[in-house]
Write a structure and sequence with these properties.
Low-confidence stretches: 1-46
Number of strands: 14
Keywords: Signal
CATH architecture of the largest domain: 3-Layer(aba) Sandwich
Distance between the termini: 45 Å
Number of domains: 2
CATH superfamily of the largest domain: Response regulator
InterPro entries: Leu-bd, Peripla_BP_I
Pfam families: Peripla_BP_6
Mean pLDDT: 89
Structural class: alpha/beta
Helix content: 25-40%
Family: Belongs to the leucine-binding protein family.
Protein name: ABC transporter substrate-binding protein
Length: 402
């Protein structure tokens, strides 16, 4: 087992969650009982052995009305189960636990000490600009004896300067905006209105688009800000309609983008609408209906999880069919979790079982250009691993076409 370094202080002890009740050392008294309840409520039914590699996921399992965190968890767990069935890494199994931060920064800050109590070697794919901004600004990773593999969203503020222990697999938001602008120009568009949520991701998105658009031949980029409120979105959508731009880009949380597109269509805007990769087609169809969703362009930072043609797609689908057979249709977040797990396992193998942050960081960076079956990840030049972005369009049946 890894020894707990002195800087952890409070988090020096790992609870024995594999007991039927919190009765061992480390779970004493009311504090121990409360911690056990909090963790057991979000832990999988199977617990880990003392020598397992432990991996954590903190995310919005409640509070965010879209399946980001649960889908990421399902994809990651399927791959870990595959690795475990083949003997694990260095003969040790990988165990994954989850904690709910309810999609807010305070929830993430409260969950992090509980996660560290379990002495994970890594966290995978935390979700939410507020939570991740707190992670960076308050330097919560400085003394944490782990690395973070992937993060959602891909906002530039989370990468520059970012944190040495935070590695991004997905392409950045700026790369998504570049692909949207390029896509719009191929369709002959030169004016765009940005409908964005009153959040850092929205404000930063507008700034990035204004900076980048002239390089793609756009003559006008304007923004309309809105809170995530039906009344304000209705007003904002009418303002966007009146601006009469050739295209609209919506930026915000998944539910905000879905609601914004519904309001835009209700306001009579029938031209091109594009959204960031965090919006899933099923959520858009559920909120706005198939007619309103039809033709909406959604940027994608991973290949089609239900597609054919890439070895990655075949490997992913085979893993999910074998280890998560109850899931019949796959989302990009399933694939994101699966890839997050694969990248971590590859780093653990390259480090020859040395799971210290320094060893994993060195393994990630020294691996160079890694090809995961048609999807490449390279951390040799920094902590952003992929530049892969494509555009998809919602078809008449409510499904994505890449």
């Amino acid at each position: 087992m890894r020894k707990c370094p002195a800087p952890w202080g409070l988090f020096a002890r790992r609870p024995a969650l594999h007991d039927a009740a919190p009765r061992r050392q480390g779970l004493k008294g009311l504090v121990g009982w409360s911690l056990w309840l909090a963790l057991a409520g979000s832990m999988p039914a199977t617990a880990w052995a003392a020598d397992d590699w432990v991996v954590g996921q903190i995310g919005p399992f409640t509070g965010l009305p879209s399946p980001d965190a649960p889908d990421i968890q399902a994809g990651a767990k399927a791959y870990f189960d595959q690795v475990n069935k083949a003997g694990g890494v260095q003969g040790r199994r990988i165990s994954l636990f989850t904690l709910d931060d309810q999609f807010n920064a305070d929830g993430f800050k409260a969950a992090l000490p509980k996660a560290l109590e379990n002495r994970p070697i890594a966290l995978i794919s935390p979700v939410g600009s507020a939570a991740l901004s707190t992670l960076i600004k308050e330097r919560l990773l400085d003394n944490a004896n782990l690395v973070v593999i992937n993060a959602v969203p891909g906002a530039d503020s989370l990468r520059n300067p970012g944190h040495p222990k935070l590695f991004h697999i997905r392409a950045s938001d700026r790369q998504q905006y570049a692909r949207m602008l390029e896509h719009g120009r191929t369709l002959g568009m030169s004016t765009v209105q940005v409908l964005y949520q009153e959040l850092p991701i929205g404000q930063q998105g507008l700034a990035a688009l204004k900076e980048m658009a002239p390089g793609y031949g756009y003559t006008r980029v304007e923004g309309t800000q809105s809170k995530h409120d039906d009344a304000q979105l209705t007003v904002a959508a009418k303002e966007v309609r009146a601006a009469d731009a050739q295209s609209v880009i919506v930026i915000g949380s998944p539910k905000f983008m879905a609601d914004a597109i519904k309001q835009l269509r209700d306001a009579g805007y029938s031209r091109s609408v594009m959204a960031l990769s965090y919006l899933s087609a099923p959520l858009l169809v559920k909120v706005a209906g198939e007619a309103a969703a039809r033709g909406v362009g959604i940027a994608q930072t991973y290949p089609n999880p239900n597609g054919r043609g890439l070895p990655l797609q075949a490997d992913f689908q085979a893993t999910m069919a074998r280890h998560a057979p109850e899931i019949k249709t796959y989302t990009a977040f399933h694939l994101e979790g699966y890839l997050s797990a694969r990248v971590l396992v590859e780093a653990l193998r390259r480090s020859r079982g040395n799971a210290s942050p320094e060893a994993l960081m060195d393994a990630l960076r020294s691996a160079g250009d890694q090809d995961f079956g048609g999807f490449r990840v390279n951390f040799s030049k920094g902590n952003s691993g992929s530049q892969w972005v494509d555009m998809s369009v919602v078809d008449a049946t409510g499904k994505l076409r890449y």
